[in-house]
Amino acid sequence: MKHDKPMNADEAAAALGVHRETVFRWIRAGTLAARVEGHRVEIAPAAVEAFTRICSHCGKRFVPRRPTTGTAFCSLPCRWAVENAKRRTGRPMGRPPITRTAPDPAAVPARLKAAVELIRRNVKA
To answer: Tens digit of pLDDT for each residue in 10-24?
Structure first.
């Protein structure tokens, strides 16, 4: 953080990019460390820095929507990119890809031979 003095709820909310009421909720829930004296709230800059996470895909700092869960991604596209990369490198999921092969001409009825020839020309191209 840029300064070393304790922040109030408004400054912490601005640093985290959330509403000040959200900061108060996190303090009441015990998720965000703060010192409360009467109506005054003091939040250490180190607590705000520790509250943010680093995206495991793009490396960007972000504030999780639900801080109690182990969210590791700053956005859905980052999450999808990592999950799709795992799918591509791991075992195939779902049905195997469709491969187009030309049917055997001997097994095709006479009325479909023109369609088979058309398919055969498209597969070779």
So the answer is: 999 888 888 999 889
